[in-house]
Amino acid sequence: MHDGEESDPAEQEGVIVRKRRKGIYILPNLFTLAALFGGFYAVVMAVNGNFDNAAIGVFCAMVLDSLDGRVARMTNTQSAFGEQMDSLSDMVSFGAAPALISYMWALQGLGRWGWLAAFVYCACAALRLARFNVNTAVVDKRYFQGLPSPAAAALVAGFIWLMTDLGFEGTDKLLGISIPWITFALALFSGLTMVTNVPFYSFKDVSMKKSVPFVVIVLIALGIAVINIDPPTVMFGLFIAYGFSGYAVYLWRKAKGMQTSVISTSTQEPDERGLH
Which domain range does residue 33 map to? Predict the structure, then answer.
């Protein structure tokens, strides 16, 4: 040992200290990659003109995205890498993919208005994800601040899935209304609702580790059976109801004089003040 060097106590005691190798947890990131593939598959199917399969790809991505976080928490494999990976996957599957699918299916027939609606949706998805990432610590975990991007994607993709299942094309009319304009309104509604402060129930307080009454399992089985009767209609109906549920909660809280913001802690910090 050179003069003037301080010896490591571990070395003095003859203990070998090994540095912990940094790595990436495989299990939760497999779900994230699978969700990313679902979004990519949706775009490829839309390019090939298979819009029903494109919509199904978005829904598959939504299911997988809901699992990766829960798997990470249950297996204690959360990581900063996983969080960033999840956001990038969400931007593709629930931001770019629904915007491109809706544009290729119906919105391109509206010219500038069509790509404007698709871009607004895509931009709002990016803003929603960015706000979610920086606002996680101050938002009430029971609620989302604005419509979550998977639900917004389910609204857009669900409408396309339902229409193609009923035999409609993106250039047809529904009840005398042009389908491209219905898609236009739905894309704007979904996109702008993502960046509002309207509270949407997050279901994060539902624990998978707690025991539940037998009737809950029966209700889940009935729910699966109902969805299988007509998946496009039931899924689109569920997400339409969820898309308006936040506004119902907001108006109810407003009428009762209750706090409508889901920010649960102090907002004195400059970085937090603009996130309401």
Answer: 26-203+245-273
